[in-house]
Write a structure and sequence with these properties.
106 residues, mainly beta, 3-stranded antiparallel sheet, 9 strands, globular
Length: 106
Amino acid sequence: NRSISVKDQRNPSTGAVSITDIVPAKATAVAYNLTIVNTVGTNGFLSVEPGDAGATGGSAINWSAAGLTTANASVAKLDGSRQLKVFCGGTATSCHFIIDVVGYYR
């Protein structure tokens, strides 16, 4: 499970902030594309929730084989710090993931 700040735009090569507050402080949710890469296991899922969530609410993307790369789009609520939490579920599963924010809601 990972908490991800979406308030600033980051350089994908270095991770350095390239634009501050690209998602403004009053944003309540974001629209995003979620890409999973190098899946492990055969019954995995990722759930994207507000950053202060203690548990998963439902899957945003699922996989059924190892080594997959696939994507899905959705909307997720933000916490007060403009963070998301990504939960990885399933039995002996994992993956790398990319979240591309494409818009926000106030």
